[in-house]
Specification:
Structural class: mainly alpha
Number of domains: 1
Number of strands: 0
Strand content: under 5%
Distance between the termini: 15 Å
Oligomer: single chain
């Protein structure tokens, strides 16, 4: 498993709402979201 996308927020409630929103999306839309932030789908967790 790789971390290929994330969003930062200080508001836990907003984070949960955003997660639920994204989970409802079709895979194609999720892939587009990742491609905009991380077009090479690199593991963003490396170095943590």
């Amino acid at each position: 498993n790789k971390l290929v996308y994330f969003e930062e927020t200080q508001d836990v409630t907003a984070a949960i709402a955003r997660e639920k929103e994204i989970k409802k999306w079709r895979r194609e839309k999720k892939n587009q979201l990742v491609n905009r932030m991380n077009p090479n789908w690199q593991d963003l967790s490396s170095g943590w």
